[in-house]
Amino acid sequence: MTVSSFRHWFTKTCCFIARVENFKNQIGNNDLPKLSVLGIGHKASEGVKGGAIVDMEASEISIRRAVQAAETMAKETMGQCLCESFWWCSHLSFTWRGSIDKWAPHSRCRLRHYSGQGKTTHIDEGSELIHLFPIDFCIDGHRGIKDPRGMSGQTCPAKMHMVTALSGPIRNSTVVVEGAI
User: Which domains are present in the chain?
Assistant: First the structure.
C-alpha cells in the first residue's frame, strides 16, 4: 500500500510518496507500520503570496510539478493524498464539561463522544472545523489525566483543542489540489 502527502507553503511545494509496510515490534510483538519513502518531489511554490493563494493556475502548476517529480522517482502514481496547508488557521482550546454514568469505565466510544459534543461548539461564520481532539481530562476533580480509558467516575470534563480555518482559502486550496492531481 502506498500513501502520499504534500505541502504547499510560502516558498516550496513538497510531495512524498511512501510504501506502508508492517513489521513486528520486538518488545511487544505488535504490528507497527513502517514507511519506506519511494519518491520525493519539491519545487518552488508559485501563486502564493503572504500565505494565501493569489494565482490558482500557477499554484496548481507548482503542485503538479512536485507531484510529477515524486511519481517519477517512485515509479508510482499518486491517487489520493494528505495535503498539509496552513491557510489562515486559528487555534482555540476550550473546556467541554460533560458527565458520564456513575462508575462507567471510559471506552473508545466514550472518547468519540467528546469529539462529537465538541463539534457543537460555536464556530465563527465563514470558518470550518479542521481538527478537534481532547488534550486533557479531569475525572471527579482530578486533573491531568491524558487517557481516561478504563477509569471510572461521576464527571469527566475534557479540555479540547480545536483548529478552524477560513472557508474561502480552504475551498481555493481544494480546487487547486484537485486540479493538480
Answer: 2-84 (3.30.420.40), 89-166 (3.30.1490.110)
Q: Return the CA Rg of the chain.
A: 21
Instruction: Provide CB contacts within 8 A for 85, sequence distance 6+.
Output: 7, 8, 169, 170, 173
Q: What does the alpha-carbon distance between residue 72 and residue 43 come to, in Å, rounded to a whole number?
A: 14
Residue indicated by cell numbers 502506498: 2
CA-CA-CA-CA dihedral for 111, 131, 42, 33, to nearest 10: 0
pTM score: 0.65
> How confident is the prediction along the chain (181 residues), in pLDDT tens digits per residue?
677 776 777 788 888 998 887 755 555 555 667 788 999 999 998 988 877 788 999 999 998 999 999 999 999 888 777 777 655 566 555 655 554 444 455 555 455 555 555 555 667 788 888 777 777 888 888 888 887 877 777 777 777 777 788 888 888 888 888 888 7
Q: Which of 67, 59, 56, 57 is nearest to 16 (CA)?
A: 67
Residue 79 DSSP SS3: coil
